[in-house]
Amino acid sequence: MSESEISVQPAMEYLVVVEKGKTSYGAYVPDLPGCVAVGETRREVLKLIREGIELHIQALREAGEPIPPPASKSEVVKVRAA
After folding, report:
1. What is the CATH number of the domain that holds 54?
2. Is the CB of residue 69 less than 8 Å from the CB of residue 31?
3. Which residue has the higher pLDDT, 63 or 8?
4. Residue 19: Cβ-neighbour burial (10 angstroms; 0-12, 13-18, 19+)
5. In this structure, how many other beta carbons lie within 10 angstroms of the beta carbon of residue 52?
6. Domain membership flag for residue 26
7. Are the CB atoms for 13 and 69 separated by under 8 Å?
8. What's the farthest any 2 CA atoms get from each other in the chain?
9. pTM (2 decimals)?
10. CA distance linking residue 67 with residue 64, whole number of Å
């Protein structure tokens, strides 16, 4: 297959929420329900969630389902501690 025949998919940027637990890190993608990962380090969980996003989108395509567009945003809000 030549380069001109390969369909290049546009890059999409999804918000990933990373949470630190007592012994591990968890990550999820609000715009892709069910797309989650757990790792021992932040670096590992980010690697795993990236792979998870790719596999999740591939599975949706293979099932003929629509790919949810990235829509979630994040903000950091400062508040006074009581």
Report:
1. 3.30.160.250
2. yes
3. 63
4. exposed
5. 20
6. yes
7. no
8. 63
9. 0.82
10. 9
- At 8, which helix (H) or strand (E)? none
CA 34 centroid distance within chain: 10
State pLDDT tens for residues 24-56.
999 999 999 999 999 999 999 999 999 999 999
Cβ contacts of 18-23, under 8 Å, gap ≥ 24: 18/42, 18/45, 18/46, 18/49
Residue 77 lies in a domain: no
Q: Given this model, what pLDDT does residue 80 score?
A: 93
pLDDT of 82 reads 74
- The answer to the question of residue 52 being in a domain is yes
Q: Tokens in use for 28? A: 């999820």
